[in-house]
Amino acid sequence: MASSRIMALAMLIISSFFFLSTYTQASSDSFLQCLSASIPNQILFTRSSPSFASVLASSVRNPRFLTAATVKPLCIVTATNASHVQATVVCGRTHGVRLRVRSGGHDYEGLSYRSARADATPFAVVDLAGFRSVRVTRGTPATAWVDSGATLGELYYAIGKVSDRLAFPAGLCPTVGVGGHLSGGGFGMLLRRHGLAADHVVDALLVNAEGRLLNSTTMGRDVFWAIRGGAGGGSFGIVLSWRVNLVAVPPKVTVFNIPKSVQQGAIDIVTKWQEVAPALPDELLVRVVAQGQVANFQSLYLGTCDALLPVMSSRFPELGVDRTHCKEMNWLQSVANIFLGDGATVEDLLKRTASGDAVFNKATSDYVRQAIPRDIWAQIFTSWLARPTAGLMILDPYGGKIASVSESETPFPHRKGVLYNVQYMNFWGSAGEEAARTGWVRDLYTFMAPHVSKNPREAYVNYKDLSLGENIVGGGNVTSFEAGRVWGEKYYKGNFRRLAMAKAQIDPNDYFRNEQSIPPVGNQFILTNVTRVDHTA
Ligand SMILES: Cc1cc2nc3c(=O)[nH]c(=O)nc-3n(C[C@H](O)[C@H](O)[C@H](O)COP(=O)(O)OP(=O)(O)OC[C@H]3O[C@@H](n4cnc5c(N)ncnc54)[C@H](O)[C@@H]3O)c2cc1C
Ligand SMILES: *[C@@H]1O[C@H](CO)[C@@H](O)[C@H](O)[C@H]1NC(C)=O
Ligand SMILES: *[C@@H]1O[C@H](CO)[C@@H](O)[C@H](O)[C@H]1NC(C)=O
Ligand SMILES: *[C@@H]1O[C@H](CO)[C@@H](O)[C@H](O)[C@H]1NC(C)=O
Ligand SMILES: *[C@@H]1O[C@H](CO)[C@@H](O)[C@H](O)[C@H]1NC(C)=O
């Protein structure tokens, strides 16, 4: 382990020299000249533009990645149509400047707008926040074309305004961008009844590394498979728009939220929840947010309170759900209520910023396939969650639809046999707390190792974590597949190799690359004559 780390570090240093030596100031100047000639001036923000800092900050969700030391882009292009994106890719390719793409800016590592490497070659950001229309079409099934820069809240609102019988199964947080979310899978309160957001994508428009605009047919089957959950790092190109199938919901759904403290039996109830929640009827999702000495059971039932109560009293009497807990409303209202609280209106789903934007945070994830013993939950509550530096744990139950899809149907492999996803998250208010707060996440992750999935220890790509591993550039000026397996198989299991083959089809020269992008595998030895360095040893 240690020697492979040293090897990886050595390779990183060698490959960085390789890049720096070939990079010149001239290429960034000529890149900017190319852009000025190809796109409207008002959508180009260079470092010297007065609004560069505010445009950069506009969708940053984590102040850790907006400091003086942050490695920032050379410029930002706030594209509003496909031709802007195509022209930016062509200029980037021609002048050797790489791109990062930002839709909602929620990336846990900020990789849509910053580089994690101090010695990174200059890069530009394509910001799609202004590229965000949603067009809903009734029919069987009803569908929507949604642009990547739309937020989940904007998508949900547009659907809910067409019909209170239609919905889309995706994440809870309304400010998350469609572009990044669908690229990594995407799950929320409908996951047990309807699966992942990416499971519902039926067409997409993608700008490839040559600047060509492709659809689901012209991009090829393997690439279309890959972008539906396997492009958590913008590896295959820039997805501009997605066509998704919508799902049917009843006109009335029921929300309930029940806190149980440790004194009220939280340890026993969470222990039991592990096996109950993944086996409940698909219409019912009961998740847990554990913080301090309290486990909050947050729920959505696709039906009325009358229908819910007998299910809860027979399947999970320990929770003590009664009529006073039920809040009946339509699905769109439930989205606002669950994430934003009781006073929230559906119009609040349209806000693109949130009060929590200035909070520093760090997260990572696990999958649990065998219920964790009660004594471990006792330690989690009485030790880990009780510390002054503690964050929280979110447990999202699987089973139902998400588990009925085969592991290779999409790149997202965490399906049959998963009881639940765990997210460990910590928050803090000032830079000085970072070490203690991130240390809590890291140490709890280490403590949990014996109790979670193994070989590989699975993780959810939308909860991106660079401490799971980072790419290195290998021989042939492309990202190393072997090195990428360290993080890639955690996110994708056996699908990682197929993703790397799809990458080789659409971007063999690895133009779209970052710290955790899919490496190309298959034909890199044919395409270049650079000697391959072996770092599998
Ligand atoms: C507060 C909060 C709540 C969340 N809640 C949930 C949840 O309930 N369920 C869940 O599943 N996840 C959730 N997430 C995780 C979220 O799904 C991911 O962070 C997602 O990648 C964010 O997408 P984005 O467009 O906002 O991010 P961005 O930072 O814009 O992008 C994320 C990644 O995708 C790439 N990318 C972005 N747009 C494109 C594009 N158009 N084409 C190609 N690549 C692109 C970026 O380069 C980057 O690597 C949450 C995150 C936060 C911060
Ligand atoms: C996109 O932008 C270009 C350049 O600004 C413009 O010429 C073109 O008409 C636009 N296309 C659409 C569909 O708006
Ligand atoms: C994709 O583009 C091709 C070629 O332009 C076209 O024939 C096809 O109808 C388009 N749509 C889909 C869904 O393939
Ligand atoms: C590496 O590949 C990129 C394209 O992916 C290219 O722009 C760059 O010039 C290459 N660098 C070298 C040193 O060949
Ligand atoms: C690789 O090298 C061989 C021999 O030096 C040469 O004939 C061939 O054209 C090169 N291929 C590429 C893709 O550069």
Automatic annotation (TrEMBL):
<keyword id="KW-0285">Flavoprotein</keyword>
<feature type="signal peptide">
    <location>
        <begin position="1"/>
        <end position="26"/>
    </location>
</feature>
<dbReference type="GO" id="GO:0016491">
    <property type="term" value="F:oxidoreductase activity"/>
</dbReference>
<dbReference type="Pfam" id="PF01565">
    <property type="entry name" value="FAD_binding_4"/>
</dbReference>
<dbReference type="InterPro" id="IPR016169">
    <property type="entry name" value="FAD-bd_PCMH_sub2"/>
</dbReference>
<dbReference type="Pfam" id="PF08031">
    <property type="entry name" value="BBE"/>
</dbReference>
<comment type="similarity">
    <text>Belongs to the oxygen-dependent FAD-linked oxidoreductase family.</text>
</comment>
<dbReference type="InterPro" id="IPR006094">
    <property type="entry name" value="Oxid_FAD_bind_N"/>
</dbReference>
<keyword id="KW-0274">FAD</keyword>
<dbReference type="InterPro" id="IPR012951">
    <property type="entry name" value="BBE"/>
</dbReference>
<dbReference type="InterPro" id="IPR016166">
    <property type="entry name" value="FAD-bd_PCMH"/>
</dbReference>
<feature type="domain" description="FAD-binding PCMH-type">
    <location>
        <begin position="69"/>
        <end position="249"/>
    </location>
</feature>
<protein>
    <recommendedName>
        <fullName>FAD-binding PCMH-type domain-containing protein</fullName>
    </recommendedName>
</protein>
<keyword id="KW-0732">Signal</keyword>
<dbReference type="GO" id="GO:0071949">
    <property type="term" value="F:FAD binding"/>
</dbReference>
<dbReference type="InterPro" id="IPR016167">
    <property type="entry name" value="FAD-bd_PCMH_sub1"/>
</dbReference>
<dbReference type="InterPro" id="IPR036318">
    <property type="entry name" value="FAD-bd_PCMH-like_sf"/>
</dbReference>
<keyword id="KW-0325">Glycoprotein</keyword>
